[in-house]
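thread: overnight batch results

M.L. [08:02]
morning all. the overnight job finished for the chain we discussed friday. pasting input first so we're all looking at the same thing
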Amino acid sequence: MPRLRRRIGAGLEAVYTEGFPSREKPLSVGGGVEVWLGIGGNLGDPIRRFQRLRHFLNRRSDLELLESSPVLLNPPFGYLDQPRFANAVLRIRTRLAPLDLLDRLLEIERRFGRQRSFKDAPRTLDIDLLFYGERRIERPRLEVPHPRWRERISVTWPLERLSRRPRIASHPSDVTH
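M.L. [08:03]
and the structure it wrote out:
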């Protein structure tokens, strides 16, 4: 598995490897909504796990992978006594409603060994729903856009490397409660 690593800042490394970055030829005729997912992990070999996740997503009929960013290696935040994280952003298309998609993502995390022991704990795979089309969603279980996406280089750096970035609705009437 060839990997090209490049230092891009203090404690930051960009990794280019199989499938990261990539642009897929869309398979669907249309329909559905474009969604941006943040993926991360720091236990085991997260880059290899990201590649397995790509293959897993490519076999699903409810989630269509459109594009992936390079991987960013970066220091942990919150709980600091843990290995650095690998992060990337995926652009997908789905027909799943937002809460159904959230449930599917949590199911995928568990399938990949995710255990939630405490806030900001080390993890095998974390999947965050960053953007769901242009919608703003405020629900007890889900807030979209992800409330802290602008504060995290683990999201902003990979997101800037995608060919298509999300547009966010700004009008209050566009909020789904």
